UniProtKB/TrEMBL annotation:
The protein's name in its UniProt record: GPI anchored protein
Leader sequence segment: 1-18
Pfam families cross-referenced by the UniProt entry: His_Phos_1 (PF00300)
Gene3D superfamilies tied to this protein: Phosphoglycerate mutase-like (3.40.50.1240)
SUPFAM superfamilies: Phosphoglycerate mutase-like
Gene Ontology annotations for the cellular component aspect, listed alphabetically: cytoplasm
Sorted UniProt keywords: Signal
GO MF assignments: phosphatase activity
Length: 363
């Protein structure tokens, strides 16, 4: 078990007399937990989502364990962990899914990362593609469909317990990925229907790139009118300004706040109902969540999924404190014209000195 002390670090950021949370990744259940598993080559669809073939302490209480699949026994193990834990402790399995390839991913590959970061990413697109709040490419759609097909096979062959709750980033590529992944799955009888909650704080790390600027709430509702925008979700993006970007520390504060709400609700009550949770998000945000829960670094390819068993311990009797401050953001100088060199580093033309003002005012 790897412990994260991030929750206790929030004490200085929270209101007085509030409860705090300590998260830990409970390892030993998934191949992704192990240092020997190479994230760059790992294929979750070839490895049963990475679930390790092993016995569990809770197996001893199963009379028919020989007839159950690995996923059925694992679900039983998680249920028992919650039943036998203290009232202030909650275990959840987070299925962290990265969106499929977006047009911003394709553009970064085309231009190269240095040129992308210092000029092209600050634009809305070029003559052939738009990457502001990027949509999925055809390859990205296929990656999401691959996830859909794998969930379908796991439901049929493994009787996997499908998510009890679905959350999705408000950025278009994540919305589309969740839709392609979970819509029209033949869910088991009694399973939670796929009607996800769009959650602001599960968005990508916020940079000056236009791909990190979400469209308005009305646009999201027009795409998926049956989906729920979380309480307090505002019409226009409240964070992106094209000038400043989050640091890793600032993103981790945001991720911890989101996890607090998933595990304990905005009122701070332990959410024992539903231990399996799907979060469709982004590479940077998933990396942040893994840091918060103390899991080892595991960078996902586009469209990939990592399940993590997480233990949350709430300390204190009050509500979980609202974050009242966070680490500072940083400005990011960039070129005003295409760079003249960007093989290993970005070099702006001599006539276009780096600036910190946005190249576009909207996305």
């Amino acid at each position: 078990m790897k412990l994260s002390t991030f929750g206790s670090a929030l004490v200085g950021l929270a209101v007085a007399h509030a409860s705090t949370v300590e998260y830990s990744a409970v390892t030993g259940y998934f191949l992704q937990d192990e240092d020997s598993t190479d994230a760059s080559t790992f294929d979750y669809t070839a490895e049963n989502f990475g679930l390790i073939n092993r016995s569990y302490p809770a197996d001893q209480k199963l009379k028919n364990q020989a007839s159950l699949t690995q996923w059925e026994r694992f679900h039983h193990q998680v249920v028992k962990l919650n039943e036998e834990s203290a009232k202030n402790v909650e275990y959840k399995v987070l299925f962290l899914g990265r969106h499929g390839e977006g047009w911003h991913n394709a553009a970064e590959t085309y231009y190269g990362t240095p040129a992308w970061n210092c000029y092209w990413a600050e634009l809305n697109g070029n003559s052939t593609a738009t990457w502001a709040d990027a949509s999925l490419t055809e390859n990205g759609i296929q990656q999401a469909q691959k996830a859909h097909d794998f969930w379908a096979s796991q439901i049929k062959s493994q009787n996997i317990h499908t998510p009890d709750a679905y959350y999705v980033s408000p950025l278009t590529r994540a919305l589309q990925t969740a839709n392609y992944t979970f819509t029209n799955l033949a869910l088991p009888h009694g399973a939670t229907p796929f009607k996800p909650t769009v959650k602001e704080l599960f968005r990508e790390g916020i940079s000056i790139h236009t791909c990190d600027h979400r469209r308005n709430a009305s646009y999201i509702k027009s795409l998926f009118p049956a989906w729920r925008l979380e309480d307090g979700f505002v019409e226009n993006d409240p964070f992106w300004n094209g000038v400043e970007g989050e640091t890793s520390d600032a993103e981790d504060v945001r991720s911890a706040t989101a996890l607090n709400e998933v595990f304990f609700g905005k009122g701070g009550k332990v959410q024992h109902e539903g231990a399996f949770v799907s979060v469709t998000s982004h590479s940077g945000e998933i990396s942040s969540i893994l840091r918060v829960v103390g899991h080892r670094t595991f960078r996902l390819n586009t469209g990939a999924v990592i399940p993590v068993l997480v233990k949350a311990v709430k300390s204190g009797k009050g509500e979980i404190g609202s974050v009242t401050s966070s680490p500072s953001w940083t400005v990011s100088p960039h070129c005003t014209e295409p760079p003249v060199s960007s093989v290993t580093a970005c070099v702006c033309p001599s006539s276009a000195v780096p600036v910190t003002t946005p190249l576009v005012t909207g996305a």
